[in-house]
Prior knowledge:
Elements (H helix, E strand, L loop, with lengths): L1 H23 L6 E3 L2 H11 L5 E3 L14 H9 L2 E4 L6 H6 L1 H6 L4 E4 L17 H18 L4 H26 L6 E4 L5 H7 L2 E4 L9 H13 L4 E4 L6 H10 L2 E4 L7 H21 L1
Parallel strand pairs: 1-2, 1-3, 3-4, 5-6, 5-7, 7-8
Amino acid sequence: MKNTIKIPIILLIILMSLFIASCEIAPTADICVSIPPQAYLVKRIAGAETSVSIMIPPGAAPPTYAPTASQIRDFHECKLYVKNGHPDFNFEKMHIDPYLAQHPEILTVDMAKEQDIMPGDVHIWLSPKIMSDAAERIYEQLSKLYPKRKNELRSNLDILLRDIGKLDMELHAQLDPFQGSQFLTLHPSWGYFSRDYGIQQISIRHENKAPSTKEIMHLIEHAKETNIHIIFVQKEFSSEQLNVISRAINAKIITLDPLNESWLNNIRTTGKTLAKVFSEQQTR
């Protein structure tokens, strides 16, 4: 009887020891990024199985998000960091840049470097051109991190660049007929995308401030004059002003997530949606 009791206890002790040991040696990601679309680029180049720590997770609001203790640990142990780099991207200014400045041994990709950035608009990842440039820079740093895999990384990069190039051609084919067309957006996320394809976003909110009654009336008047019938919103943003404007101009409210990790599909969906609505607006 005593032996039958001892065996389960011994097994339990062994299992607990293995669990504790595995927790202690759990590997952290070699690569950290600020936002999910950057993780998309890394995984397309380094492989889908690559462990990437995303500092601003899906559903979080970048202007107010603060990293958790486990994220800070991952960040402090990473070997490569992919940053947005826009001077107004406050998350990085507060939580990332000070540490990177003290640790030059961490390989860094600055997506905004040498790009024509817009003051106040940090959403550079919504431009296929900028993402294509970023992919090449990520490849260069991944080649330093994993030198034995350089040929594989190059092959993956070439496939990714081909896919982005194909997407860019699709978007031009869809949106070039609607040059100068406008759409409303609750939050000004789509400036770089709009610049790439010759369309124009008109934001309801600026600097995350709700519009005044006078501004709302002006937006409604402008939307009616220019036949705007679409409003893009992010799922974490909503407002009564949005409902007032959408009812007044009979607009479709379409929810998009600029931080969606499935970046290529997200941008493709955005282009198709805009082209469809612009076409409908012309026939009204």
